[in-house]
Design goal:
This protein has 17 helices and 13 strands. It is α/β, with parallel strands linked by helices. The longest helix is centred in the middle third of the chain and has 17 residues. The chain binds uracil.
Length: about 425
């Protein structure tokens, strides 16, 4: 078999066999296939796609490329969650402690920033001391002890996805349904959880820009999960403006802590409650969604979820004072600049991808594999969809370390905002559920 032939075959839209997909994945993981050929292959897949059979096969090959993380010695139900990636999406930081406070085990392996969308591991690393690479024993012990642990993808869980994901990030081949589905599900299947909730984002800040693609992806994810005996639910959720108010690593941790303190932004809190409630039903803590939602809201308001977050931070060697005094424990960039409305009217939508790109530009994300990021930078969104503004009102705030980058970031944020003279219709944060 040879890589050139396989690239050509996919470039011409032909179906690949299991042996061919195995050759590509295994060869790339072993370093026998160079980045330039793998990049060409990924671009061919981007344009010609993988069909359902090819996607299942690729998922299996990637899931089996490393170890299986057996969680069976953790008593009780283990329910996982995943987001297809968005802007301002700090949901895992809140949902994990919420469900752990209600008796589920949340054993989560998370990723780093990808393109314009942030990554949970980068966010957590803005907490001083927080360790994101735990070995298996520490990971499992933490879940047994605290109920919630969030660690980086270890070297041995779906290493094929880890390597391919990093290459996709820098070759503009992320937003392809079969690649996203196989990437997500290979990691999920390599971890022994009982069930999972997948948050499929749709809109300008998501990899899926329209509802049709988002539904396709959600159906595929649920199908793959079920084929492997995992109870899987996908939520289709709005990403046509950043989630919550904060975008950027330390800023998002601040907002997550505020939400766990019971005063988070409404859209973000609603999403956290919905995801947590679905996890609680899949994990059989409650039989009805309505009751699960009620209990999920309660743990946000009475401090139990915040206490779980604190225990997790402590277990992972982070500074637990982040829970009581996040403003002083976290570091925020010192150049803070207002962005003002260029028009008057109602905010109609905010292109979340542009806001995400502004944060990448400020140094809060990556444009090259393994680039270091600046956790302190970001954008605070002060006016959201439906808000009325006058020309000159402050609509957003930029946090920059490098003064030179402010102008470009400001332009991106200004371009992200779209105004209309009439009040736009309300858009719900949850568009649908696929179960
Ligand atoms: N999240 C993943 O885990 N993989 C993708 O490809 C996109 C989002």
């Amino acid at each position: 078999m040879n890589m050139l032939e396989i690239i050509r075959k996919k470039r011409d839209g032909l179906k690949l066999t299991e042996e061919e997909l195995k050759y590509v994945v295994e060869g790339y993981v072993k370093g026998e296939i160079p980045d330039y050929q793998m990049s060409a292959f990924l671009m061919a897949v981007f344009f010609k796609h993988l069909d359902e059979d090819e996607t299942y096969t690729l998922t299996e090959i990637m899931a089996r490329s490393g170890d299986y993380l057996d969680l069976s010695d953790i008593p009780g139900k283990k329910v996982d969650k995943h987001s297809t990636g968005g802007v301002g999406d700090k949901t895992t930081l809140v949902v994990g402690p919420m469900v752990a406070a209600l008796g589920l085990n949340f054993a989560k392996l998370s990723g780093r920033a990808l393109g314009h969308s942030g990554g949970t591991i980068d966010k957590l690393e803005s907490i001083p001391g927080f360790r994101t690479s735990l070995d298996r024993e520490e990971f499992v012990e933490g879940v047994k002890k605290v109920g919630v642990v969030i660690s980086g993808q270890t070297g041995n869980i779906a290493p094929a996805d880890k390597k391919i994901y990093a290459l996709r990030d820098v070759t503009a081949t992320v937003d392809e349904i079969s690649l996203i589905a196989s990437s997500i599900m290979s990691k999920k299947l390599a971890i022994g959880s009982d069930a999972m909730v997948i948050d499929v984002k749709v809109g300008s800040g998501a990899f899926m820009k329209n509802m049709e693609d988002a539904r396709k992806l959600a159906n595929l994810l649920v199908k793959i999960g079920k084929m492997h005996g995992r109870k899987t639910v996908a939520l289709l959720t709005d990403m046509d403006q950043p989630l919550g108010r904060m975008v950027g690593n330390a800023l998002e941790v601040l907002e997550a802590v505020e939400t766990l303190q019971g005063h988070g932004p409404e859209d973000f809190e609603t999403l956290c409650v919905e995801i947590a409630a679905n996890m609680l039903v899949l994990g059989e803590v409650y039989s009805k969604l309505e009751r699960a939602r009620m209990e999920a809201r309660k743990v946000l308001k009475d401090g139990r979820a915040l206490e779980k977050f604190k225990q997790m931070v402590e277990y992972q060697s982070g500074n637990p004072r982040v829970v009581d005094d996040p403003e002083n424990v976290l570091t925020f960039a010192s150049n803070i600049v207002d962005v003002r409305a260029q028009d008057e009217g109602f905010v109609h939508h905010i292109n979340a991808e542009k806001v995400g790109m502004a944060v990448v530009m400020l140094g809060g994300g990556r444009t090259k594999k393994d680039e270091r990021i600046d956790h302190s930078v970001g954008v605070e969104i002060l006016k959201k969809r439906g808000d009325k503004v006058k020309k000159g009102d402050v609509i957003a705030r930029i946090y920059a370390s490098d003064f030179q980058k402010i102008q470009k970031a400001r332009e991106l944020v200004e371009e992200a905002y779209h105004f209309t003279s009439t009040e736009p219709a309300k858009v719900p944060i949850i568009h649908g559920v696929i179960a």
